[in-house]
Design goal:
Elements (H helix, E strand, L loop, with lengths): L1 E6 L1 E3 L6 E3 L2 E3 L5 E3 L1 H17 L2 E7 L5 H10 L3 E5 L9 H15 L4 E5 L10 H9 L3 E11 L8 E8 L2 E8 L2 E5 L11 H9 L3 E3 L1 H4 L31 H14 L4
C-alpha cells in the first residue's frame, strides 16, 4: 500500500505572535514540523507496518521546509518530496489543496493520504477536506484509529476509521483511495531513531516546482485579515489604607462612587 503523509513546517509553539503591517509575524522563532502532522506520520507509519507498504512525506513550502521533511524521514518515512515555488508564497488552504492534489496525482498509485487535524500556524483544518474534494476521493476526518480491509478480487480495498468526536466515537467506512485526517488518539508519535536521523541527514529530497506538476499558480487570495496588536493599557494601582476594616471599607465605597463605577 502506498501512503502519503502531508506535513507542514510551522513556527515553534513557544513563539510569540505579534502583528506587523497588518499581518502575523512570528519573529525569529525556530521552524519545526507541525506538531499535529507528527500524529499524521505516526498514523501513516502504523499502516505501513500493518500492510508492508511505503510512506512518502509530502510538503508544500520554502526550501527551509526540508528540515521538517528530514524529521519525517527520521521517524520512518521512505522518501520525501518538497513542492517549492516562489508563486506559492502566502498560499491559502484552497490553493494548498490544489497543489497537494497535483503532487499526489503525479506520484500516482496512492492508496491513502494522511493529514494531521490542523496546522499550528493557521489552524483552519480545511486542507484535508479540500484536498479530498480536488482528488474526488472520500474524506474521513478526526480519525483516532485506522483499519484497512485488504479486499478481494470482487471487492476493492476499503478503510474503516473510528472518529473521535464530541459526542463520543463514530465508525465510518470508505473505499480506497481515501484522505484521512487524524487526531492524537491515533497514538503517541514515535521518536526518530539514531539510525533514522543519520539516514535523514544523507537523504536526497526531491523538489518539485509548479511546472513539474503541470499546474498554474493558484489564484490570489480573495480576502485577508488585517491584524493589529492590542492597544497598550496604562493602569495604576491605589492601595487604600485605614485604621480599621470599617474605615477601609468606607474609603473604598467613597472611591467607587467618586469614580462612578456604580
Amino acid at each position: 500500500m502506498k501512503i502519503i503523509a502531508c506535513i507542514k513546517q510551522v513556527p515553534d509553539s513557544e513563539a510569540k505572535v505579534k502583528a506587523e503591517n497588518g499581518q502575523v509575524s512570528w519573529g525569529d522563532a525556530p521552524l519545526v514540523i507541525n506538531p499535529f502532522d507528527e500524529y499524521a506520520m505516526e498514523g501513516a507509519l502504523q499502516q505501513k507496518e500493518a500492510s508492508s507498504g511505503t510512506v512518502t512525506a509530502l510538503c508544500v513550502g520554502p526550501e527551509t521546509a526540508k528540515e521538517a521533511l528530514k524529521h519525517a524521514l527520521a521517524m520512518g518515512a521512505d522518501d520525501a518530496i518538497l513542492v517549492s515555488d516562489a508563486a506559492l508564497a502566502n498560499l491559502d488552504t484552497q490553493g494548498a489543496a490544489r497543489v497537494l492534489a497535483a503532487a499526489i496525482n503525479k506520484i500516482g498509485g496512492v492508496d491513502m493520504v494522511v493529514f494531521g487535524r490542523q496546522t499550528l500556524d493557521n489552524g483552519a483544518g480545511l486542507t484535508p477536506a479540500q484536498t479530498a474534494r480536488v482528488l474526488g476521493w472520500p474524506m474521513l476526518g478526526l480519525a483516532g484509529q485506522i483499519k484497512v480491509d485488504a479486499g478481494s478480487a470482487s471487492s476493492p480495498k476499503g478503510v474503516q476509521v473510528e472518529r473521535v468526536i464530541e459526542e463520543g466515537r463514530q465508525t465510518v467506512k470508505a473505499k480506497l483511495p481515501a484522505v484521512i485526517s487524524v487526531v492524537q488518539s491515533i497514538g503517541e508519535p514515535r521518536y526518530p531513531s539514531f539510525m533514522g536521523i543519520r539516514k535523514a541527514a544523507k537523504a536526497e529530497i526531491a523538489v518539485w516546482s509548479l511546472s513539474d506538476l503541470g499546474i498554474p499558480a493558484p489564484a490570489a487570495i480573495i480576502t485577508r485579515n488585517e491584524l493589529m496588536n492590542p492597544p497598550a493599557r496604562d493602569t495604576t494601582v491605589e492601595i487604600i489604607t485605614g485604621d480599621s476594616p470599617e474605615q477601609i471599607a468606607e474609603k473604598l465605597a467613597d472611591k467607587i462612587l467618586a469614580e462612578k463605577v456604580i
